[in-house]
Every structure is written in C-alpha cells, then in structure tokens.
Design a protein that fits this description.
The chain is globular and about 45 Å long. The N and C termini lie far apart (about 55 Å). It has a two-stranded antiparallel sheet. The chain has helices spanning about 1-45, 60-90, 110-115, 115-130, 140-165, 170-180, 185-205, and strands at about 50, 60. The protein has seven helices and two strands. It has one domain (about 1-205): Arp2/3 complex 21 kDa subunit ARPC3, CATH 1.10.1760. With about 210 residues, it is mostly helical.
Length: about 210
C-alpha cells in the first residue's frame, strides 16, 4: 500500500508538471500570436502616411503602433512585435512607410527610425509596467503613461536623426529640424491617440 501511495504521489507530481508545462507553453504561444498581431498592426499603420513639407520623411502612424505594443504587450513582447515587423519588412513584406520593403529600407534615410522601434517599445513597456513583468496598463496614471511615450519618442528621433545625418550627410541642426522638429505636432497627436485607446479599452472592459 505504501508503494501504491508513493506511486500515486509521483503520478500526481508528473501530472502537475505536465499541466504547468502546458500552461507555460500556451502562454508563450499566446504571446507570440499577440506579438505577430501587433507587428501586423504596426505594418498597417505604416500605410497611413502623409508627406511632410519640411522633411524628406513622411508622417506615418507607425509610432502609434509601437507605443501600443509596449503598453499592451509589455517590454519583452512589445519589442518582440517590433522585431517581427522589421524582420517581415526585411524579407520583402510591404510593411514599411508607403508599402516599401526590403533590406535597402533598413539602411536608407529612415533606417534609424525603424531600428529604434524595438528599443522604444521596450522603454515604453518598462516604464508603464514598472519593470519587465506585465501588469495592468489601464491602472497606470496619465502622467506616467504620457511620460513613457515621451521617452519612447525621444529614443526614436535620436536614432532617426543619427541615421539621417549618416545617410543624407546632414549637419546636426538641419537633421534635427527635418528629422524631429517637423514631426512634433504629429507625435503629440499619436500620444493623445494612444492614451485614448488605452483608456477606452479600460472603460469597455468594465
């Protein structure tokens, strides 16, 4: 009887381990699927572009998708979504601004903006969630939410300006005006839109 009891306990432990493994596996699959969905969302937002008379780069909604990835998926999976987006574009999917694709875009005049997206999503997610673990973004205060996106914006434009200076051989002042200042009003609207989306999802959940 003792041996049977031990056998039963062992089976229970094995069963529990199997359940835990299955749950962990399901969570990873879910997160990968969500990252892929947000990668597609960022690509879709990139199609919404408008010419900027002060800059050679267009205004797109791409950054809005990056913000939402960091806020709603957290730093790890938000940055993973941006990485999937870049990988898809590099392989030829027309997901960059204006439907552009290919590795050439990733070394062109907008390269700095593109390569900065995983870093920006990671920074936004880390600030919003207070670390690497995913928490409830709907409970985050407005100041923290906006502050996170401001940090993300600074990172994106810092790398974007650097890329423009290298590729287009611009001076710092010219690159800042054409690569950042010209986009400030649009970025403010994207931050406001992201706040509205997060807050409206909280209301809908209630």
């Amino acid at each position: 009887m003792t041996e049977q009891r031990h056998g039963g306990d062992g089976d229970g432990e094995t069963g529990a381990a199997s359940v835990d493994t299955e749950l962990v596996g399901d969570e990873v699959v879910t997160n990968v699927a969500r990252a892929a969905l947000f990668a597609a969302l960022i690509g879709a937002f990139s199609y919404v572009s408008f010419p900027n008379p002060v800059s050679p780069n267009p205004v797109t909604l791409q950054v809005l998708g990056v913000f939402l990835a960091g806020i709603l998926l957290g730093p790890i999976w938000g940055s993973a979504a941006c990485g999937l987006y870049l990988f898809a574009g590099m392989l030829g999917a027309p997901v960059f601004a204006g439907g552009a694709a290919g590795f050439g875009v990733l070394i062109g005049q907008t390269a700095g903006y593109l390569w900065s997206t995983p870093l920006a999503a990671f920074a936004v997610g880390t600030i919003v969630h207070g670390g690497l673990s995913l928490s409830d973004p709907e409970a985050v205060g407005l100041a923290r939410l906006v502050g996170a996106m401001v940090v993300g914006t600074v990172l994106i434009y810092a790398l974007g300006i650097t890329g423009m200076m290298i590729v287009l051989r611009l001076g710092l002042e010219e690159a800042v005006i054409a690569g950042a200042v010209a986009f400030i009003p649009a970025e403010a609207l994207k931050i406001a839109a992201a706040v509205g989306i997060v807050r409206s999802s909280a209301i809908a959940a209630e």
